[in-house]
Design brief:
This protein starts with a helix and ends in a 6-residue tail after the last strand. It has 393 residues and is of the alpha+beta class. The strands form 3 sheets. It has a 5-stranded mixed sheet. A 4-stranded antiparallel sheet has the order 2-1-4-3, with helices on both faces. A two-stranded antiparallel ribbon has the order 5-7. Helices cover 53% and strands 17% of the residues. The chain is built from 8 helices and 11 strands.
Length: 393
């Protein structure tokens, strides 16, 4: 449990670290972009001053310098308007209007948009040199600045996409590796159980011949058959067992009969099953394992005394199996965690029972298993949903 908590904490730290990097990158980019905006604004003020000098030029004005400044602007879109907002000159404006549209009207409209965004420099002109009181230099951000403003978000998007793909690939690899461990452990367990089970079966036959009337031998045979069934379950993990149409009520009856004989008399099993057959695609040996795990967990949660109730009902698409106990309950924050490998509230235990149950229900039966409801001190209800359209292979 502590190992899985540690791994989860490491993931949170990595995500937090990535968020800090993303925020830092955005703040740095915005800081640089603001500097570039100020630089372009200063350039426009110099350009506007050059225009003022050109409009008020006399024989002493150095027109070469003025024209050099004016012609040196190759990136910033500029529109010059009179005092009435009518455009009469422009520079670095890309054509974006229809052929039958008045170009000057379009430029005037565009200049008005620049003005509304505060991108305008006003130049007062001497009355003796012009009939206009002033002209307005309206400008927009350069194409490079616009691209730089968008670039950090594109960069972050690419990074996020790469991280998501990397995380998906990592978890897929971890899941594949985990599956190999599950399968290897299950197959090895089945293999190791095979020899002693065969030996016990042989000894049962010997004892039957030696003590044919012994009343304990039938019970011993049942336990040996039980071991064979457990070994069969382990051998099927990782393989592709056949799903058959089974009456889920009969399967659950077998589980209840087995559990009732092997638990304390203080644990009462109650069943609420329909009288009609409830057919669904099942792998009986594995599904029995799931329900047994739920019942054993319920017994532990109740401290060896209480009521375990099993329900079966259906609708058009699903057959529902519910296992309800009167135990100590589960907090809502742990509803999903209980199915994760390593999660356990017992002093002794690997925390693998519910994880295995989830894998069996979802991967082999294409269903769902989850905590339907629970509360501290009021018990827990687990629900299994089995689709009716899973047919026999």
């Amino acid at each position: 449990m502590q190992m899985f908590e540690r791994i989860r904490n490491i993931k949170y730290v990595l995500v937090l670290f990535a968020i800090v990097i993303a925020i830092g990158s955005l703040l740095t980019s915005n800081y640089l972009i603001e500097d570039l905006k100020k630089e372009e604004t200063n350039r426009m003020e110099v350009w506007a001053e050059a225009m003022r000098s050109l409009n008020s030029a006399d024989e002493n004005t150095d027109l070469n310098l003025v024209l050099k400044v004016i012609n040196g602007n190759h990136t910033i879109p500029v529109i010059v308007t009179d005092k009435n907002g009518v455009a009469f000159s422009s520079r670095n404006i890309q054509r974006s209007f229809a052929e039958n549209e008045d170009s000057m009207a379009h430029l005037s409209s565009l200049a008005h948009e620049y003005m509304k965004r505060g991108r305008v420099v006003r130049i007062d002109l001497p009355r003796e040199l012009s009939s206009d009181d002033f002209i307005s230099i309206c400008y927009d951000e350069s194409l490079m600045l616009k691209r730089l403003a968008i670039y950090p978000y594109i960069q972050l998007g690419v990074v996020v996409l790469f991280v998501l793909i990397a995380i998906f690939a990592l978890f897929s690899a971890m899941r594949a590796e985990q599956n190999k461990v599950w399968v290897g452990l299950s197959k090895e367990t089945a293999h190791q159980l095979g020899t002693p089970i065969s030996s016990l079966t042989a000894w049962c036959e010997v004892l039957k011949e030696t003590y044919p009337s012994d009343v304990l031998l039938p019970e011993m045979e049942k336990d040996v058959k039980r071991l064979e069934r457990i070994a069969e379950r382990f051998s099927k993990i990782g393989s592709i067992p056949e799903i058959h149409s089974e009456n889920v009520v009969e399967v659950l009856d077998r589980v209840v009969t087995y559990m009732d004989k092997r638990t304390s008399s203080k644990v009462v099993f109650t069943t609420h099953f329909p009288k009609e057959r409830m057919m669904v695609g099942l792998i009986p040996s594995l599904f029995e394992w799931v329900v047994e795990n739920l019942c054993k967990n319920a017994v532990d949660a109740m401290g060896g005394a209480g009521v375990i109730s099993l329900y079966v009902y259906d609708d058009e698409k699903f057959v529902y199996v519910e296992v309800k106990d009167s135990g100590k309950g589960i907090s809502k924050s742990h509803f999903n965690s209980v199915f994760k490998p390593g999660f356990t509230t017992k002093e002794r235990g690997w925390g693998l029972g519910l994880s295995l149950a989830k894998r069996i229900v979802e991967e082999y039966h294409k269903g769902k298993i989850y905590v339907k409801e629970s509360g501290i001190g009021v018990g827990t209800t687990f629900r299994i949903e089995l689709p009716k359209d899973v047919l026999e292979v």
